Amino acid sequence: MAIEGSKDESRSPRIRIGMVGGGSGAFIGAVHRIAMRIDDQFDLVAGALSSTAEKARASGRELGLDPSRTYASYKEMAIREAKLKNGIEAVAIVTPNHVHYEAAKEFLKRGIHVICDKPLTSNLADAKKLKKVADESGALFILTHNYTGYPMIRQAREMVAEGLLGDLRVVQAEYPQDWLTEPVEQTGQKQAAWRTDPARSGAGGSTGDIGTHAFNLASFVTGLELDSLAADLDSFVEGRALDDNAHVMLRFQPKNGGRPAKGMLWCSQVAPGHENGLKLRVYGSKGGLEWVQADPNYLWFTPFGEQKRLITRGGAGANAAASRVTRIPSGHPEGYLEAFATIYAEAARAINARKTGADLDPAVIYPTVDDGVKGVAFVEACVASSKRNGAWVKLG
After folding, report:
1. What mean pLDDT, rounded, does the chain reach?
2. Which residues have C-beta within 8 Å of that of residue 292, sequence separation ≥ 6?
3. Angle between the 97-108 and 124-137 helix axes, to the nearest 10 degrees?
4. What angle do CA 111, 114, 115 make, to 5 degrees?
5. Are strands 168-176 and 279-284 parallel, antiparallel or unpaired?
6. What is the pLDDT of residue 11?
7. What is the distance of C-alpha 110 from the center of its chain?
8. Is residue 336 a contact partner of residue 145, using CB atoms and an 8 Å limit?
9. Largest distance between two CA atoms of the chain
């Protein structure tokens, strides 16, 4: 792999992978395909790229897939690929949320590893059922919370684990965007249409689409488990069925017998001036951290009573956790696609270890089906709390 610190790894054959969804014009499908190629660990050999057979075939031709391995449905693909001598070993599921459960189930029960977009499913009942299927299948399940792949996020997680912030007290996460400030879903804009449709998105709008990212990132860095929340959700655009803004107060479970940390999460898709404003701040008894996704190669660390310190990706002060997912020297920016590729690189390590029976390096980290269940529980708790005028709700 191209990631620094992995040069001693012997070259494994590329993992044969298929894709469900992600056909012509699908933004996230292209992102997944770029991410799986960056470290050269996967070969895309099959696909059920659209719910429309004609579009699926056209998308397969565009990607250079063998026509015999371009399928009209994910079920057909799962059945046939499982029987082929050189069938797929893994599948990337990049569809709207309501398809995740049934599609993932078809591949998992045939022992095919799943790499799936978030949120895990469109409702908590399906999320819990999918976890059961995944646990019983013996196949790996990787959830693409791609922001966990940034080197400076790995740095922050390690610093918290080492106790450099002391006892955690306050966690602030936010993810504002502005692209749904007007009712663009009514113009036929595909990405907006399904994300604002409860039948395809689930119970959460901004909470499910980007709030789950902010929540996952806060949990990943701090290691804290959420106990309960109080949420105020709004659909500011007239006629919109799902929330486009949420303010959420968080209470975490106590750690090591100490006082529970508190937090606040804001996600919005109606915040003009914010293109993709993911930010995380964590404060403890000994210091604080701040990271902004728009400038992801930098992490600010302030030990209490001392000057603010800038830690840069690949620079002085970068720790081993950050260095192992750093690809190029400091001063050359790494961004969104490389962070996404880190999830695929970690997935490849885990799949190859499973295939050979080798012990998996404990440094390998990726979001799992368990993280997915927590994300969907977060969304449903937000919706339930808001319906009760912001009452405190335990996670389901």
Report:
1. 95
2. 277, 278, 279, 298
3. 20
4. 165
5. antiparallel
6. 75
7. 24
8. no
9. 65
pLDDT at 303: 98
Tokens 């190629």 appear where? 37
Which pLDDT score is estimated for 10?
Answer: 66
Q: Which amino acid is at 48?
A: A
| Strand order, beta sheet including 90-93 | 42-48, 15-20, 90-93, 113-116, 141-143
Please give the structure tokens belonging to residue 7: 């040069």
Tokens representing 219 are 């949990």
Q: How much is the pTM?
A: 0.95
Q: What is the pLDDT of residues 99-153, one digit of tens each?
A: 999 999 999 999 999 999 999 999 999 999 999 999 999 999 999 999 999 999 9
> Which strands, in side-by-side order, build the sheet including 279-284?
309-312, 298-303, 287-292, 279-284, 168-176, 262-268, 245-252, 226-234, 393-394
pLDDT at 3: 53
- Residue position matching structure tokens 């990405």: 191
Structure tokens at 267: 């996600």
Question: CA–CA separation, 51 vs 48, rounded Å?
Answer: 8
- CA dist list (Å): 378 to 12, 174, 202, 225: 38, 15, 13, 11
Give every residue of the chain whose pLDDT is below 70, as ranges.
Answer: 1-10
